Amino acid sequence: MSDTDTRYARHISVGDTNDGGISLWLPKIGNRTMETVNQSLADGFQKVTAREVLPEVSPLAPPDALPATCACGTVSFHITRPNEESYIPHSGYPDLQYAACSHSSEFMANPNRDKWWIRANGTKYLAGTCACRSCRLISGFEIQTWTFVPRSNIFFHVAASNGEQTITPLDFGTLPSGILQTYESSPGVHREFCGTCGATVFWHDKWRPDVIDVSVGLLRAKEGARADTWLDWWTRRCSFEEETTSGRTGEPARVARELIDGLERGLRSGDKRELNEGNR
């Protein structure tokens, strides 16, 4: 196979997501329609559509809390619905909503103090996709999914000495050692991950200490990986899509650009379908 044969071909293990995950936003990459496969590569291929592999699931959490865990269980926490405290923090706009490269620093600082992370009449949190170079190199994946949650709505499950779990509000300064590992990806910017299984957990910085980026892949919503009853997905843009080819040239850059272009097309198409269905 030559370099020019490099291509994305299929979504695998889609059944694990329960709702299709972001495969629903990537039906095509370039001019190719993606195959959707319920099983893993080791089990062989079973070609199906995303809608055919969405099984019913039993409730995994009470309605007022959304559990989240990493693969090994070292990191365990839950998120609560927006409340009065959720509106207290201030944060500049995220690149997800407005490309920082196209807007002034004054605008991005959010001088009107919009509470952009609260959505759907105060019932959901904003979520979206990111293609920045840092997320890509740290996670090893082209696309990272984040949701933006006030720190006051995040509660860690910490094992007590008697073997039982205690619930504690997220405080990076007092959280017991051994749960989260931290990498300072740039001055003042911290990324937390599980030191055992390596799962990406949080992104936060010193300028926005009370609104935390939470890795959506850890959320255990009963409806599926997108946690649609908790999250309002931004479909107008993939954050930092301008960095897709950063540090890459030739075929790797072309293939990456094709993927993110396909994602943004799928996001916008999904947004239009939802609007049309809502107007019927």
Automatic annotation (TrEMBL):
Keyword presence, Metal-binding = yes
CENP-V/GFA domain mapped to chain residues? 124-229
Under InterPro entries, the record lists: CENP-V/GFA (IPR006913), Mss4-like_sf (IPR011057)
SUPFAM superfamilies, per the entry:
Mss4-like
Keywords, comma-separated and alphabetical = Lyase, Metal-binding, Zinc
Enumerate the GO terms in the molecular function aspect: carbon-sulfur lyase activity; metal ion binding
Say yes or no: keyword Metal-binding present: yes
Q: Which family does it belong to?
A: Belongs to the Gfa family.
Q: What protein name is recorded for this chain? A: Glutathione-dependent formaldehyde-activating enzyme
